[in-house]
Amino acid sequence: MTGRTRWLAVILVAAGSLAAMGGWNYSFGQAGGPGNWEFFASPTRNPVEPRWGTYQDIRRQDREAAAAKANYCPTSGCVIRLDKLAVNPPRVQRGRLATISLSYTILTADDAGIPVTITRELFHQGKSLGRTFSKNMRTANGSFDQEVALTLPENSPPGKYTLKTRISTGFGQDERSLDFMVD
Q: Which one, of 146, 148, 61, 138, lies nearest residue 103 by Cα?
């Protein structure tokens, strides 16, 4: 192994160890999270762009419990399902924190962790105000709950907003939309 290759190996091992311990601290629209998730926000340079905050991802059911609930048979292929989408409080106040909650289920025939991307995009009067996505390169089988903090600026127009959320993998995708009010 040459000196350059050895240093590259040391850096990769150190970076992997830091990521495994949850030591990544992302800024500028990115945030590290539990379970190897990476979180990114796409700025739109819109003066009423939402400010995406912290997030968490919690495993609600292991593979066996999720498979039993879904009456899943491995010969039927993969299950990629967005089970629930909510915004709390249901009437969001400009300048105040709100939480986007979603529940999803991943089941594969061979019980292997798969890459998953969850995308959220916020619209007002048909115009995109901002998008965020989170990625996990090894999502285990099971059912999960994920929450993302959101704050709309004080100068956001009141009215009906639409949140479009998509979960996607190499095996398929599922999508839901939700309308909510901003005061």
A: 146
